[in-house]
Amino acid sequence: MARKKIEPITSLGNEDKLTVQKSLPLFALWRSELTLAEFKILDTYLSRIDSHKPEKRAVMFEKGELEKILGVKRINNQDLETRLKHLMGNVIEIPDESMKKGFRLVTLFEEAVAEQDDYGLWQVKLECTQKAMKYFFNIENLGYLRYKLRCITSLTSRYTYIMFIYLEANRFRKSWDVPLDELKQILDCDKEETYKAFKRFNDLILKKVQKEMYEKTECRYSYEPVKKGRSVVAVHFEVETLPKASLEEVDENQMTLEQWQEEAVKEKELWQTPLEDFNFTQEQYDELFSVLITIPDSKLPQSSACYGSVELMRYHYIDQKAKEIKRRDTQKPIRSKFSYLLKLMKQDAEE
Length: 351
Fold this sequence. Notes:
This protein is an alpha+beta fold. The protein is built from 12 helices and 10 strands.
């Protein structure tokens, strides 16, 4: 049977009014190797589709639109081909709550058609893959958030984009600590010797990121170093609450930040799930987490099942400790499983 032709969506429209509607699993793409230009193309694609019309999954970037998105006057043939090949060939790890263990890998786009006119301007058609459609269309069950496209198209630093996505994905926490090493991994600068000292990392990345964020987005936040002795071990973030959107701006199917926050409170974080049988209080979880973030990566499981994710490493670490406690408890009852676990974790944090 011949494949039905999919008519592309055309015309970028007024950028100020375009909104990126991104399912929560797609927020995990900050872990990927996509470049800033590729993130901008993806977000523009998301802002152009109607999430309730999966039959219209092809988007046409008209002449001059792609150049505008990337902030350049002209793109040469080889550069565009390289960008599109990388975007289409990038295998992405997508979080999937239906899988207790393991991971799901997908490619986002299956076809890109590019044609250049006599003036050097490109017309490009993009179409997402069948497997990726569940993350682009009818995403109400997955939950999703929205932000203005103009917030990210004007950004010039990948660091700022990743920080923007990271803060939006964690906005429901309002305030939290992230280990310094993990933050460097998130921003993909953990292997750079230049940023080894916190002062250099702060001056060259964190301060510049916050400055650009304030100038070009609606995201407002503060941060400060968390010290252990004289060393900075984590960064504390506080994100300001966004002003409530007017009724005409709210999609009736959109999960609001308030709803997401309520759901997040009800659900256990991944690392907490192996401890559910112990019935710890929230205060005990908070104390455990304050120690967990100080445990060096070398003490966390490095299995391929973790796929380089610190979150998964912590999950497997706690899972191993929980199994050890249950095994020892059958041999000799443990009076306080919380105190026992805390002691084990502190030993790993101090070694």
